[in-house]
User: Fold these one by one.
Assistant:
Number 1:
Amino acid sequence: MLQQQGIQSRHYQTNTVLTAGVDGQVEGRTMLHLVRQAPGEKPYTLMTGIYSDRFVKVDGSWKIAKRHS
């Protein structure tokens, strides 16, 4: 619906910090900056936040097992 109105959103995810746990899992925290822009308007910050993730290794590849925002 937003796309039909020409509204664009950008999700910037930065400053990821990873910490290895003794159980072989990895905890991560990533900052979020969500920007929105309507046609003819300046972009504005819609929200900011932090993602808290738990990563696990599955068949040699790291996967997000859990995410909280």
Number 2:
Amino acid sequence: MLRSHRVTGVSRENKVKVAAMSMSASSPDGDDATYLEWHQLDHMPEQYQIPGMLYAQRWASTPECRRARAAESERFTRVNHVVQYLFGEPVTQAIDDWFVLGARLHEVGRFPYRLPAVLLGVFDVVSCHAAPSAAITDEIVPYRPNRGMYLVVERPADDGSPFPWSPAQTDRLLAIDGVAGLWTFAANADLRPDRFDPVHYQAAVCYLDGDPVATAGPLGELVTERWEGAPVTPELAAPFVAMRPWEWDRFCNPG
């Protein structure tokens, strides 16, 4: 078992309770730069006025990332952008405020852009793991700077039973060069079913120190092995590059 780098004497409770993930395709004209600039400098920072909003990050695909995908279902093949919002208590109120704020920003003309939506889901945090190379506490991995992430989306068996990552699978993943940590998630069916996707996916976010494309090879092999005979339907296994402000043109045609 890999050694934890948790700091002793500090509360072990994770402040993050749920994650909202927004996955989008590219704009019809193929140029996402205007949207990305607005989202990074206006829309995403505005969310931090909400009590319970803890952190948010955006990642994008590139042509190189797309070629390195290990799996993509028909629904998820269009995903070029992923945003992860992390929420703590008061969770229910924070989620409600999140939707209210979006509506109010639209009313005052500060929600002028949208990308074609693929999935808007809300997930409970299932497990948190930091890689030995990162030397940080498991629960703060998302706050640490990263070069990108590897996203795994799965659809559990028809009865909705989760298929957790085994300790052996987790240890192998965390030992891969360039991996900083892994958080796993299961769909929350109770929070705002009127707004979030009704399909109860489970997800894993692998935070990367290494180049996302270079790391995608061994990660894809591990995930493919995980799926052999497993009671899940593979939906997506793909690398994404961390968005860097003022480099919008790098992602203006990510597909």
